[in-house]
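Re: beginner question about structure tokens

> Can someone show what the tokenized structure looks like for a real chain? I only ever see the sequence side.

Sure, here's an example I had lying around. Input first:
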Amino acid sequence: MLTKEHVVEEFRKQSICEAVMRVAARKGLKGVTVQDIADEAGLAKGTIYLYFQSREEIIDRTLDNATESLLSRLAAACQSCRGFREVLEQRVRTQLQYFEENRDFFRVYLAMSEPFGERRLKKHPTYQAYLAQLEGHVRDAFARGEIRAANVERLAIAIASVVRDIMLHRMIEREPPPLEDDVRFAVDFIMRGIGTR
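And the corresponding structure tokens:
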């Protein structure tokens, strides 16, 4: 049974993580300080240290929470899919919707893809879990003969990159196309490159 103290602690940690997202969206991940987080969360800097030992721990927890939420949505979206094309459609749609609903997280995700953040992203366990989930779908599709033989890891990275770049353009365009148009474009583009039919 959860105690009131535990519930309050988890709520406070979540509000601190949400503050990290907002600050990182404005300043970039490298520029975020504990003082910035405290100011954004409406807390004293010392209060932050009651819940987290370091800036790095706060950022890791923030990224873990957001990525785990995305992974759960992706897994649920693909449960009843038949065939790789349908899996791909559901994953692209779900990811674009998630990033549109969580634009601050997408900005942090992008910051991790920058030259210095790239090393951090590659080592991040939830990002690795995201790629592993995608690699599993790719392996299954290859086994069923739906796609051509390719390096599974590279293919997963390429698919992730296509979706990331489409989302980036959705964020910077004044009037992006309907989401379904981008889903169709991404799926058609990917399937033309790897499909067997």
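Each token stands for a local structural state, so reading them left to right follows the chain. The chain has ten helices and no strands.
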